[in-house]
Design a protein that fits this description.
The protein is mostly helical. It has helices at about 1-15, 20-45, 45-70. Helix content is about 90%, strand content about 0%. The longest helix is centred in the C-terminal third of the chain and has 26 residues, at about 45-70.
Length: about 70
């Protein structure tokens, strides 16, 4: 997953370095950064869901264990 972002970041940095003016460089920096952030967010969605489910399962197990020890 991250290899795609590293490749895009490399191209993004080269585009910034070769921009013909400061304004174009800043615009490439902003737009490219937003695109990279969006792509990372979308690509990390399965991981976020997996982590959330693991935390919920651990909380459920701890609550069940607490109920067992109280009884």
């Amino acid at each position: 997953m991250y290899i795609v972002l590293f490749a895009f970041a490399y191209i993004w940095i080269l585009m910034i370095a070769t921009a013909s003016s400061l304004i174009k460089g800043v615009m490439v920096f902003i737009v490219g950064g937003l695109i990279m952030a969006l792509v990372f967010y979308i690509m990390d969605t399965p991981g976020r869901l997996r982590r959330r489910r693991a935390i919920e399962a651990a909380e459920d197990a701890a609550a069940a264990q607490a109920r067992i020890t109280q009884d």
